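Encode chain A's predicted structure.
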Amino acid sequence: MKKLQIIMLVAIAVVIAGLITMMQDISTYDSIASARNKEGKFVHLIAKLDKTSPVEYDPIKDPNYLSFYAIDSLGSKTKVVYLNSKPTEFEHSERIVLKGKMQGEVFQCKEILLKCPSKYKDDPTQQMKQLNTSSSEANTPATDEKKY
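Encoded structure for chain A:
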């Protein structure tokens, strides 16, 4: 074999190994029930914070421990333990994406992504102010008109 052919085979092997490694990190969104069936495997959950259960977070005692209960869209509930600081506006988030592994009945979370569409919606009072401002401008005569 020529050197060029050997180099090409090695390069192809490296690319294939890289793709296989990256494929292990790819995950689909699962429900809590399917995550329980895949215990120990990395999964993504879409859920919402169960506001009827307490959120355990004491930054003075342990700033890297957050525990709460999450409910998925099918109504399943699980305890979530996140060994990091609590995300800002965590309680105000409508939906959360949890990345981690199910260990028994507890979801060991490695990363939390917050979904907060209310942050991006227009405030109704702000909309009314803008509407009133634009309608009052339309009713007032223009003062910049040039007189010839």
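The longest helix spans residues 3-25.
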